[in-house]
Amino acid sequence: MINADVANLYCVYNTINLIEQQYDQPISIKAIEAVSNYSYRNIQRIFKYSCGETIGAYQQRLRVENAYKLILYTKESLTTIALKVGFANLASFSKAFKQHFGISPKLAKSGKVQLFRTTNLTPVKAGGTLKPEIVYLPPLKVYYKSTFIQYTNPEIEQLWSDFVKHTFPQRETEYFGIIADEPLIRDELACKYDACASQPAADQKLPSKIIMGGRYAQFLHKGKYDTLDDTYQKIYAGWILDCGLEFSQNPIIERYIKHVDNTEREEEQLTAILLPLK
Fold first, then answer.
1. How far apart are CA 18 and CA 31, in angstroms?
2. Domains of the chain
3. Distance CA 44, CA 33 (A)
4. Predicted pLDDT of residue 235
5. By its UniProt entry, which SUPFAM superfamilies does this protein fall under (predicted)?
6. Which of 10, 35, 63, 208 is the most exposed place for a label (fewest CB within 10 A)?
């Protein structure tokens, strides 16, 4: 029998998925109640307790952060971006954007290089050091658990430590990390991170969803996980500045090819970093 705590988690996962899919549209109380199977008052409390912010605050954050991605990675006008992410007009967008990031969208659009520097990344040349492969990855169903954290937070390790305690098929299972917010968005990234497995656990029913299904720039990182940030630094402060590609708003995916369960030495661990492309 599924206990009340697990049932609450399912209602939160369903609500999060609804907001992520429709963040750029008005979401009705009826729709939230339908996916969560709770009254709005109760799901609002459960969501705030579980995620640290209200449903409305999470939707607003997704709007301004996705707008920031469009400012950085596309040539669209601010008015077009404002309407695309769900704001009624440029004025309301500008107010929300400045409240969230402490900078106007106009200044953000005209000062991209400076915004990279605020992430404490040292700009490097993209020339020969990084050569991603452009790949198409088919849709894949995964089973997952989530946490809202700072990306460099030890809670990621704790999430994986708890996640792999489940009984997954040893040979057939692939493992992924889904990063809902990009490392560039702010100085200290608060993200929703999903620990995912390609096979269901035998000991507990986990929530599932479809990931991938599109084009990605694939970078390979060899070595320990605590050096992953070095590769992200080269991507975001170097390669991405000159690549000429446009990126979709889908989450970044980390694919753990060689990990602690299938390789003995940390130096031999291999992680694919997948940046979603249009």
1. 8
2. 4-109 (1.10.10.60), 133-276 (3.20.80.10)
3. 10
4. 79
5. Homeodomain-like, Probable bacterial effector-binding domain
6. 208
The string of DSSP codes covering the chain is ---HHHHHHHHHHHHHHHHHHHTTS---HHHHHHHHSS-HHHHHHHHHHHHSS-HHHHHHHHHHHHHHHHHHH----HHHHHHHTT-SSHHHHHHHHHHHHSS-HHHHHH-HHHHHHTTTPPP---TTT--PEEEEE--EEEEEEEEEEETTSTHHHHHHHHHTTS---TTT--EEEEESS-TTSSSS-EEEEEEEESS--SSS---EEEE--EEEEEEEEES-GGGHHHHHHHIIIIIHHHS---B-SSPEEEEEEE-TTT-S-GGG-EEEEEEEB-
Rg of the chain over Cα atoms, rounded to whole angstroms, equals 19
Structure tokens at 249: 């708003």
CB atoms within 10 A of CB 89: 10
Cβ contacts of 8 within 8 Å, gap of 6 or more: 46, 50
Q: Which residues does residue 148 pair with via DSSP β-bridges, in sequence order?
A: 192
If you count them, how many residues does the chain have?
278
